[in-house]
């Protein structure tokens, strides 16, 4: 087992662990009683901190968060010439919930009204997993 000398010295410094005394040949105590007490699992960690996430700061939105131009049908539904994909999905779901367009027997299916039919290629009913794919053609490059 490889242990870094920095980590090893942190756990076995003279302040945290008393000096070990080896048993005499005539000692009857087992070695486990003569060893140092177990280290506290809540010991102070080293000062080196690694972080997997970078600070985003005031970075411009990218990917699905970036507002894109949309088709005239989507612009009529949304009410704006540009919108991000996430915001468009939120507005579509708000419309579905507001008008109670989910199929009562199977909530995974959406019954399209006239506004949604314009966006969903004239389909009468769509599955909720199909919505993201059906709005893709409305986002212009």
TrEMBL record:
One cellular component term from this protein's GO annotations in UniProt? nucleus
Q: Which InterPro entries match?
A: SWIB_domain (IPR019835), SWIB_MDM2_dom_sf (IPR036885), SWIB_MDM2_domain (IPR003121)
Name any one Pfam family assigned in the record: SWIB
Question: DM2 domain: which residues?
Answer: 63-141
PROSITE patterns xref list: SWIB_MDM2 (PS51925)
Please identify the protein, giving its name as recorded.
DM2 domain-containing protein
Q: What organism is the protein native to? A: Populus trichocarpa
């Amino acid at each position: 087992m490889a242990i870094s000398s920095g980590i090893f010295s942190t756990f076995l410094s003279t302040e945290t662990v008393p000096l070990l005394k080896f048993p005499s040949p005539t000692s009857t105590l087992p070695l486990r009683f003569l060893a140092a007490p177990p280290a506290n699992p809540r010991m102070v960690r080293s000062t080196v901190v690694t972080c997997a996430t970078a600070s985003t700061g005031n970075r411009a939105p990218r990917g699905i968060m970036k507002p894109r131009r949309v088709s005239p049908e989507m612009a009529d539904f949304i009410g704006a010439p540009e919108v991000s994909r996430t915001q468009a999905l939120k507005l579509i779901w708000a419309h579905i919930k507001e008008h109670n367009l989910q199929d009562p027997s199977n909530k995974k299916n959406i019954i399209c009204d006239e506004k949604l039919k314009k966006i969903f290629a004239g389909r009468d009913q769509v599955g909720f997993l199909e919505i993201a794919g059906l709005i893709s053609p409305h986002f212009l490059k």
